[in-house]
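Reply to dn_fold:

You asked what the input looked like. This is it:
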Amino acid sequence: MKNIENQMLEKCNLCPRQCMVNRQENQIGYCGETKEVRVARAALHFWEEPCISGKNGSGTVFFCGCNLRCIFCQNSVIAHGEVGKTITTKRLAQIFLELQEKKAQNINLVTPTHEVLAIREAVLLAREMGLQIPIVYNTSAYERVETLQMLEGIVDIYLPDFKYMDTKKANDYSHAKDYPKVAKAAIAEMVRQTKTVTFNTEGMMISGVIVRHLVMPGGVHNARAVLTYLYETYKNDIYVSIMNQYTPLRKSEQFPELNRRVTKREYEKVLAHAMNLGIINAFIQEGATAKESFIPAFNNEGV
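and this is what came back:
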């Protein structure tokens, strides 16, 4: 298995970018990372959906690098690798166990795509050492089905975004015109692996899929299209999380429409559409949730 993994990194095609660079020789692809695993934070996180964070917090591991790099990214400091600490796979497994000891509800892997091989190895090692809590794969959904298939039996909960049904927005904001097609296939594989959503007696999610959609300023039509697709495809076999927390952290001269928050009216239109579709299994955000408090300090805590 190790030889196969080495070969995959020698011509890296883990994500849809398929850069084919030799990450074993420290070549850098679109994600910005080599074979080294870099983590910017590993700590309890309380700002996920209630069935993920719970009362104890989600044991969240923020990986450096990203294969999507949206221009409005709220975690750009780690997406562009400006911070973070290099660790071994063994250390990653230890981090999982340390988070479990802190009573984390789960292990929440943020921006994990380009580190799938190390994650798989670390989870298996940690389970041999006593890891029992669920594994959450927190992703943009810009994933190859073949890569996700390597995680069957490893990941318990998939937490993907579905950012765009609009290919122009996908290209403009994330340089990924194929995003809608890729995300559809990726989410289908996630649902195949986890099947129906399951909760424990405390109301915590232990398996299944929650698809997130961040409503963008001027993005009501796109949001409606995303929700329509998800409901027509999966009905209420999945949960959706409709988010209004978009925060313009920097001014965009090229796309000035992004230089504001989502209005209450825009968000209400999206929620009304969800209700009209018949979506029951949904999380929504109320009040002034578009705050920078959702963005933790990436200071190598817990790494």
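The mean pLDDT is 94.
Hope that clears it up.
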